[in-house]
Design goal:
Elements lengths: L9 H12 L6 H4 L2 H6 L1 E3 L22 E4 L7 H13 L2 H9 L31 E2 L2 E2 H21 L12 E5 L6 H17 L5 E5 L4 H10 L5 E6 L6 H16 L8 E6 L13 E4 L12 H11 L1 H17 L9 H15 L4 E7 L6 H13 L17 E4 L10 H6 L6 E6 L9 E2 L2 E2 H18 L16 E6 L4 H22 L10 H11 L9 H9 L3
Parallel strand pairs: 5-6, 5-7, 7-8, 8-9, 10-11, 10-12, 12-15
Antiparallel strand pairs: 1-2, 2-15, 3-4, 13-14
Helix pairs in contact: 1-4, 6-10, 7-10, 7-13, 8-9, 10-11, 11-16, 12-16, 13-16
Length: about 550
């Protein structure tokens, strides 16, 4: 395999030629039709054995699954064929297979990238190959940790592990930041209403992330401390914010007359200072081959989700993700949703030069999903050098933002419709609500109103509306995609997460960047430490001292 900068490929030149020749592919009044909407649908995942019996009226979808619709994107068959050629030239599927089988892909840190292996049911890569490192079968290690924390969660939920005689754990709070917070928090929120709609026993799950003391104070003050289990998450065991919050929580527990060892479990690496420590009720492990923003499929997300909703729910989530991972091995981009989504994103970023993209889920359950995708995308592909550390000469990752609909319609959609920048839009929607609790108001249900607004916005962004009054004129030409399904469940949530993880991975391969390190977060940490450890009243940096002085540090 060869790793080539995008602008050195034949595909790059071909796509620029097409961009110049094709004119305004964003004229959706010409290019978009009802028939095209029905045709341009790609399943996110292959149907699983467990899902075969689930009825689905969704055209072209696996039972119970999700579909990627790309009808309102600015490309035709010629462009799709050129994107296919670029995918082949950049050997995207071969690189994905190599990643799955344990080839070092995090070149900056010399590490494998194995979050997909966490979702394997047999401990092998999705290609069928075992992944061995220094004599250790890593798939077996991940599977055994899954079994351990699943059993732990079930014992806690059953009252077999208790904080004190006569007491049970009724609430959980995860202490972590970045990938130890954003993904697990987004997933936990996404399942709350589903659990209620299914009549499942769901226990309270909270999250403490910010080193701002008001965050930890608010959460601990709202919890029954004598019935709460805190889950401390830090791979390195040295994260400043997380360790500070751990001590904050332990102080609260001690002041309440409680033993912190009965109220805290740890998720960390086996080499961290937190590992094998008796001050925790139990400890669960992952390793350096699981990046923080890709770690929701590990104990980082699995412990809190299994405690709150049950280990079977987390396993369903993993099954949905695994199905999407396997579908992403397809070489034909018209049949591979995450690969097609990635290539269209590159088409828009590098040949239309759109610097932003918006994640717009029409589901309140996905309220924090855009924040997680913001980290996933921007921390992975917000890079200015290639895999070899050499500067690159083309745009890479876009700015990612978003908010659930219809809330966003009353916030920033004004700019999206009539602003001077075109922002590609990524909609997500479902036919059914999670709670199954609705009412007919003015002739339609709330869910019908939500879906009507989603369909209306896609159409309005694409086609616009001409008006002689300038302030009422909608230019249209705003490209969008839609991921849709019957209902947001643990399985579809897993497929949705894996879709975006794989999309980001493919784009990193196309841009020839290392999507699995994050050196950009380090400098601020170093300077903050200088402020906190300065001697003689100075850090040695007059600008840093001046700003910290304004804040009373």
């Amino acid at each position: 395999m060869k790793y080539i900068d995008l602008d050195k490929t034949k595909g790059f030149e071909t796509l620029w030629t097409l961009r110049d020749e094709k004119g305004d592919l964003n004229d959706f009044k010409v290019h978009l039709s009802g028939e095209l909407v029905k045709q341009r649908n790609v399943p996110l995942a292959e149907p699983s054995a467990e899902a075969e019996g689930i009825a689905s009226s969704m055209r072209g979808s696996p039972p119970g699954g999700l579909v990627y619709n790309w009808a309102a994107r600015a490309l035709d068959d010629d462009v799709v064929n050129a994107l296919q050629a670029l995918s082949d030239e950049q050997e995207l599927i071969a690189k994905y297979r190599a990643l799955l089988e344990g080839e070092v892909m995090n070149t900056g840190e010399g590490r494998k990238v194995l979050h997909h292996l966490l979702r394997s049911t047999d401990g092998k890569a999705h290609t069928g190959k075992a992944v061995i490192h220094e004599g250790r079968d890593l798939g077996d290690f991940y599977r055994k940790e899954l079994e351990r924390f699943s059993a732990f969660a079930e014992k806690v939920r059953a009252g077999e592990i208790v904080p004190a005689p006569g007491k049970r754990y009724t609430a959980f709070a995860q202490i972590g930041i970045g990938g130890s917070d954003l993904g697990p928090r987004a997933l936990s929120i996404a399942l709350e209403n589903w659990a209620a709609g299914e009549g499942r026993k769901a226990l309270r799950a909270e999250f403490i992330s910010n080193v701002d003391p008001d965050d930890a104070s608010r959460i601990t003050s709202s919890l029954p401390l004598d019935e709460t289990l805190f889950v401390l998450v830090s791979k390195s065991g040295t994260t400043q914010e997380t360790l500070t919050n751990e001590l904050f929580v332990k102080d609260k527990l001690k002041k309440a007359g409680l033993d912190p060892a009965k109220h805290m479990a740890a998720v960390t690496s086996e080499t961290s200072p937190l590992a094998h420590n008796p001050v925790y009720l139990d400890s669960f492990y992952f390793d350096d081959f699981i990046g923080g923003r890709y770690s929701s499929s590990s104990a980082v997300g699995g412990v809190i989700l299994s405690l709150a909703y049950g280990s079977d729910v987390f396993r369903d989530f993993l099954a949905g993700a695994a199905a999407a991972d396997k579908a992403a091995l397809e070489t034909d981009i018209r049949k591979n949703a995450s690969l097609l989504d990635a290539l269209i994103g590159v088409w828009e970023r590098n040949f239309f030069l759109y610097p932003y993209t918006a994640i717009l889920p029409y589901s309140q359950a996905l309220a924090r999903f855009p924040a997680h995708l913001q980290q996933l995308d921007m921390e992975s592909n917000g890079k200015r050098v290639n895999r070899d550390g050499e500067p690159i000469r083309y745009p890479t990752g876009p700015v990612v933002f978003g908010e659930p609909g219809t809330n966003g319609q009353h916030s920033f959609y004004q700019l999206l419709h009539q602003g001077t920048d075109i922002v590609p839009l990524q909609f997500i929607g479902f036919r059914q609500s999670q709670r199954k609790d609705d009412a007919v108001i003015d002739g339609s249900t709330s869910q019908a109103k939500l879906k009507a607004n989603l369909a209306a916005q896609i159409t309005a962004f694409a086609n616009g509306k001409s008006d002689a009054v300038g302030s009422k004129d909608f230019p249209g030409g705003r490209p969008s995609s839609l991921i849709y399904g019957d209902r947001l469940t643990p399985r579809t949530l897993g497929a949705l997460l894996a879709h975006y993880e794989n999309k980001v991975m493919f784009q990193g391969f196309i841009w020839n960047v290392n999507s699995f390190d994050q050196e950009g977060v380090q400098l601020g940490k170093v300077l903050a430490k200088k402020v906190l450890t300065k001697t003689g009243g100075t850090s040695g940096d007059p600008v840093l001292d001046a700003y910290s002085g304004l804040l009373g540090v």
